[in-house]
User: What shape does this take?
Amino acid sequence: MDAAVDSIRHCSFSPGQRAFLDAPRKAIVATLRVDGSVEQTIVYYVRDGDTLWISANPDGGKANDLRRDPRISILVYADDGSAYLAIEGLAAVSDDITIADRIQLMTRYLGLEGALQEVANKPKPRPNARIRVLPIPRARVQHCRVTGRSSAIRMRWSSRGNAP
Assistant: This one.
């Protein structure tokens, strides 16, 4: 992870949040364009400890937006709309997605056979960008900006990792 981003105080996911994120859910990612307008895209993601990572075109809008301004918002949602997890954070962009990483990411959603077929059908001329997202606490508030709705999962927690 980028040293500047890695040095920032960040939040930890609760066990319930980790379980929610570990299911093969889609997410909506919001970044800021050069003109300040918001760009939103639907993505696949992988949870890696207390961070998430997504894969993106290294020359595309998401990667370029985040190299310029690392602020990112991610909304992970249940297909039936019964629960969601909103995460605000900072992103570090690196161009190091390997074929094995692509297979790992897509296997969560397509199964191993589907992931292998997708990688074979869509070879990349160079590695994709890895966008690693570090959840950060809200400014002037003692809670991380991770909110959501579910009867089974507490979605708001403090910057110390304790549920309020």
In short: Residues 139-147, 150-164 have pLDDT under 50 and may be disordered.
